[in-house]
Amino acid sequence: MLAAAREKLDRVGPAQAADLLRAGARLVDIRPGWQRVREGDFPDAVVIERNHLEWRLDPTSAARIAEADSHDVQWIVACSEGYTSSLAAAALQDLGLHRATDLVGGFRAWQAAGLPVRESDGAPPDYAAAPPVRGK
In terms of Cα–Cα distance, which of 104, 91, 107, 108 is closest to 1? Predict the structure, then answer.
């Protein structure tokens, strides 16, 4: 399954990801909160834990985040080591997000490359801070 997912992707390493981010791509961190607290955070990443990813990034979803306004957004998905992110990025491509890819080696490779990281405050993602009121 992992190999099939990766066949769809033009995966990027940390340096290339940093260049793409400077050019307008968006980094999405899918790690659970406990992992972000343990390892640290990517500065400027959109945090969307894995179980929310598709419906938060699908431009046709009523629950999408504001940045997910087009199928042409270039999303770079990151996890801890680059395994779950490959499966997630392939799922985004299945939704029509044709520029979705993932970060080879994940957060650990980013950090090992000397790219910026910060201590996590453990705060929930913005979309989770105030759940929508149901039935209105």
Answer: 91
